[in-house]
Amino acid sequence: MVDILRQLCTLDATSGDETAVRNFIINEIKYFCELKTDNLGNIIAFKKGKKTPTRKLMIDAHMDEVGLIISSVTDKGFLKFKTVGGIDTAVLLSRRVLINGKTYGVIGGKPIHLTSGDEAKKLPKADNLYIDIGAKDKEEALKTVSLGDRAVICSEFLSCNDKITSKALDDRIGCAILIQLIKQESEYDFYGSFSVQEEVGLRGAKVSAFSIDPDSAIILEGTTAADIADVSSDKQVCALGDGAAVSFMDGATVYDREYYNLALTSGIKCQVKRAVSGGNNSGAVHLNKSGVRTVAVSVPCRYIHSASSVADINDINSALALAKHLINKICGEAV
Fold first, then answer.
1. I want to staple 285 with a disulfide (CB 3.0 to 4.6 A). Which of 34, 150, 209, 228 is the partner?
2. Using an 8 Å Cβ cutoff, are 195 and 62 in contact?
3. Side-chain-facing half-sphere of 167: CA atoms under 13 Å
4. Which of 78, 138, 135 is nearest to 107 (CA)?
5. Mean pLDDT across the chain, nearest whole number?
6. Per-residue DSSP letters for 108-146?
7. What is the per-residue DSSP string for 225-255?
8. 295 with 273: CB under 8 angstroms?
9. What does the alpha-carbon distance between residue 269 and residue 271 come to, in Å, rounded to a whole number?
10. What is the CA radius of gyration of the chain?
């Protein structure tokens, strides 16, 4: 699965521009399921299993990643931008970016030796940063880029000692797991949703859930891990190496208690996500029509939404095993 994840992470797919990842996924799963793409760009796949359950199960992972979108060009040829999704300004300064897969630039701002007092002690706001592509003026810049073009921070996929470092682990990890679930033999039928635009408001999953109309859902996601220096244990959320993280509640969803307990009593190494904040596609899916019983299975990622997120391969394998277990228990009506 690491090779699939490598290929997924090296593709660029900011919210609303998921074409490259969508095409890759379709090519990977097209011989293992029935699939269609909806008007928003979600992939909806039907995996035929050995048995047809009475409950319709949806498994979701989102294809999009955080990034930047070009909003204007200055007279001197610098590109102003807006963030697409939640990105900390600290991960942007002086980073190389790639625009539309072909134009490189550097994110710049006011040099530190030209700041003083309180200004020198604070991070600049994203609105005060710009992308330098080496253009001499606005006219030259617009020969290369256009307003609305997307940019991602340049990143290299690295794997060492069971750890993976890359951009877009949120949520290419979920996509890689769902690809594996579809390609492997399944005891029960289920629907897979590779959704768009999660990072800008859970939009794709809302549409795919309406189309599938599931009774139950499993959301596969990368989530924040803060098991790092100077963070107290009660605020670390989850830890690398302790298995998949299972949520009881977050900022968008109160999860199905029986499904939550199914995960924790599975015998598969997993951990409780110790934070009631943030959210994922569960927030849209569980509110579909008359309601959907939902559980989130997340892989801990340090430095999430940066070019150097870090995850543990063992946690990814844990999430895959836990997803299989939940499919069989939910579809087998264990609860």
1. 209
2. yes
3. 25
4. 78
5. 93
6. E-S-GGG--HHHHHSPPPGGG-EEE---SSHHHHTTT--
7. ---STT--GGG-B--TTS-EEE-SB-SS-B-
8. no
9. 7
10. 21
Superfamily classification of domain 2-65+167-331: Zn peptidases (3.40.630.10)
Known catalytic membership, residue 198:
yes
> Which of 18, 28, 198, 199 is flagged as catalytic?
198
Rounded to whole angstroms, the Cα distance separating 83 from 65 reads 11
Q: What residues does each domain of the chain span?
A: 2-65+167-331, 67-153
57-70, pLDDT tens digit by residue? 999 999 999 999 99
Q: Name the architecture of domain 67-153.
A: Beta Barrel (2.40)
Residue type, 321: A
Amino acid at 224: T
H or E stretch at 224: strand 216-224
Q: What count of other Cβ atoms lies within 10 Å of the Cβ of residue 182? A: 22
Q: Can you tell me the mean pLDDT for 207-228?
A: 94
Helices (H) and strands (E) in the chain, counts: 9, 17
- Distance between CA atoms of residues 96 and 114, nearest Å: 22
Q: How does 32-65 read in b/e, with b if 16+ C-beta sit within 10 Å?
A: bbebeebebbbbbbebebeeebeebbbbbbbbbb
